[in-house]
Amino acid sequence: MSTAMDPVGATPILTEQVYERLKGAITDGVLQPGQRVRQAELADHLGVSRAPVSHALHLLKHQGLVRESGRRGVEIAPIDPDMLRDVYQIRASLDSLAARLLATRFEQGKVTRADEQRLVAACAAGERLTLNAPLRERAQADVFFHREIYRLCGNPAIEETLAPLWPHIQRAMNTVMSFDEIRTRAWSEHARIVEFIREGRAAEAADAAWSHAANAGSETEHRLRSLSRDD
Predict the structure, then answer these.
(1) Can you tell me whether residue 132 is helix, strand or coil?
(2) pLDDT (tens digit, 9 = 90+) per residue, 156-170?
(3) Which of 76, 91, 113, 226 has the fewest CB atoms inside 10 Å of its own CB, making it the most exposed?
């Protein structure tokens, strides 16, 4: 078991803490697809009893991040290209809506200077990452950028709807972001979306956000299928 996960302290929300720790390890690629998960080993590593680990694994199974594997017990679920295609279709529609709403708020003067700076900073932070940055840092920066748009757009239901889908998206990002041209193009597209949003150009922002997510979904699905064939 990787030592990248720090022990969890005993608290009333122990199951939630274990769940979040395991979800983060799966999302960041610390726990790899197909890797067997042993409850006793996890409990020892995290410094907890088996009960919160069992409950956390049940939640992760419900979310599709781990699965039963016969006599092997539980393993980290593979990244399914078909599922990712479906997820990106949902994301493209909601990203487009969020960008449209936020651009409209800019046009109406409803966005504070501090919030505008947060959006610009989120984009700039990703652009500053070098190609040598760990894949998980690149993916985390990408997720943070999009979540800033959701948080500022005025419709909290968008972020709430997409929240359970992001771990699946981020796992795929960690797989395909080794292709440098994808990373470079993504942040160029992010900057364009921010430009439209700040100028209050709602239709252009919506179109740019939809195209960005839809194209990312197609590229991700293609890369995943190619990697599966290579295996």
Answers:
(1) coil
(2) 999 999 999 999 999
(3) 113
